[in-house]
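Hey, can you fold this one?
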Amino acid sequence: MSLRSMTGYAQVRGQANDRLAFALSLKSVNHRFLDLHFRMPSDTDGLEMKLRTMLKERLARGHVEVTLSLDGSGGNGVALNRPLIASFVQAFRAAADEFGVEGEPDLNVALRMPGAMDSGAEKSGDDLDAAVIASVAEALSRLNQMREAEGSGTERELRERMKLLRVAAKSVEGHRSAILRAYAERLESRMREMLGAQVDKDRILQEAAVLVDRSDIQEELVRLNTHIDHFIALLDQGGEVGKKMDFLLQEMNREANTLLSKTSGLAGEALRITEAGLAMKSEIEKSREQVQNIE
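Sure. Predicted structure:
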């Protein structure tokens, strides 16, 4: 299954009957979970519930705006909702009589009421519901095509980031031997300052070895490479892997931070470990920015 972005747009048009046409559009952007928002004409609550169910079955994450617009120009044009207007007029006059207030109903106010005016064709009904539902599959297909196209570009970039991250990790591995020398030199310098005389080289190496053991970065490197392997496997798998990728990148960032904290303050050749660690964090952060838009 292809990797999919959460960003996409699709629109389909259809005909409910000879008097009523419609346009259904889907617009998706990134979000932590599936967040559906509907912009539907009045009297289509039942249709909205059906669409909500269908979209939940096909989409996993993203803020999705669903817009349904109707065109009744093939019918009798704009029509009044006579029962609603009549109810408004009756209620107005009843209130005027009850409270002894003079006045006549304002038609401008009445026509601004929701549902007071609609197209000459029915907004709801079996014809419209069936036609819109039949178009949802096509709209979702177009939406996912766009999302997969963008996801393909993101996948290529993420693979390149993982390659660079592995190179940086290998560079750190190559400089591990410099840690022992750096600690030995630091320890010897401090002991000379304190004792002011020749010190036992073997003792210095023993103490440095203890420090290196406490500050060894091998475990961090092993876990980091394991996370990279898992991340690449998710890229190969595709589908709904965005949350898993984000979690792995958080773990990679934690290993990089630990590595940097264990090697802070080193000089000379060992300083290159810090440089490589910072490069690792940069690649991880750039990857996280891309993963935020993966379904």
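The chain is about 60% helix and 15% strand. Let me know if you want another pass with a different chain boundary.
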